[in-house]
Amino acid sequence: MASGSQVVKEMKQVICESQVITNPGSSAHEDGTNVDGAQAPKRYLGNKKITPSFNAPPMIRKGLEMMDVNGGSGAKTAGSGLRNEPTLKHFDENIISLIESEIMSVTHETGWADVAGLDGAKKALREIVVLPFKRPDMFKGIRAPPKGVLLFGPPGTGKTMIGRCVASQCKATFFNISASSLTSKWVGEGEKLVRALFSVARLKLPSVIFIDEVDSLLSARSETEHESSRRIKTEFLVQLDGVATNSDERLLVLAATNRRKRSKQMVA
């Protein structure tokens, strides 16, 4: 039986022969230098230096070229985007990634004609939301629009669709959240997520934060509720108060509920 070192030598010989057959015009040494003297470009992944093989399959070779991990002009690594913003440096990267992937939605072009019926709601939202977003210079002082709107109606009547339509008409970033997206098994993560959500929304102005089933998230506080739920509600009220006091921010909180009577008992 052949020894381990002998097997390794035979494998190296087979690999070298296959490289010569595949690319007879040139071959590459271990230091990354071709036979003709040209230096192969070296890439860096973390602290490990690698040299891409020119005999690699086209798909892999193209992927290595697109990565440009040496800091090329067109490179965008995983740490780019919102996580490089100075105002978000004190937030956990996992929280920012959660907001980018699950809460911040891509709003496609949605017009009022895409929403069937609901003429009264559409007319009211045009006047109190869309027009102030488009012409903030005309809605100041006593004509300042509200910073929060509550939509109510039975399930399936188009409340979420109206929220997307409002964000599309205002050319705003749409944040779609629910009670499940703000809950965490770790104590203290919920309020951090709320704080980070409003910070990201202020970076992406104009923004529309849509809260679905708001009665389950901001129900009236009681003595029997969990401490984490109470802290999330408190943080929400602090952020909502900041939105209401800053009239120059084009940030709207749009909430929806199918329990109108219960919404009167929500925290205020």
UniProtKB/TrEMBL annotation:
InterPro entries: AAA+_ATPase, ATPase_AAA_core, MT-severing_AAA_ATPase, P-loop_NTPase. Keywords: ATP-binding, Nucleotide-binding. SUPFAM superfamilies: P-loop containing nucleoside triphosphate hydrolases (SSF52540). It holds the Pfam family AAA. GO terms for molecular function: ATP binding; ATP hydrolysis activity; microtubule severing ATPase activity. It comes from the Eukaryota. Coiled coil: none annotated. Residues 145-267 form the AAA+ ATPase domain. The keyword Nucleotide-binding applies. SMART domains: AAA. The keyword Nucleotide-binding applies. Belongs to the AAA ATPase family. PANTHER family: AAA DOMAIN-CONTAINING, FIDGETIN-LIKE PROTEIN 1. This is AAA+ ATPase domain-containing protein. It comes from Ancylostoma ceylanicum. The gene is Acey_s0067.g123.
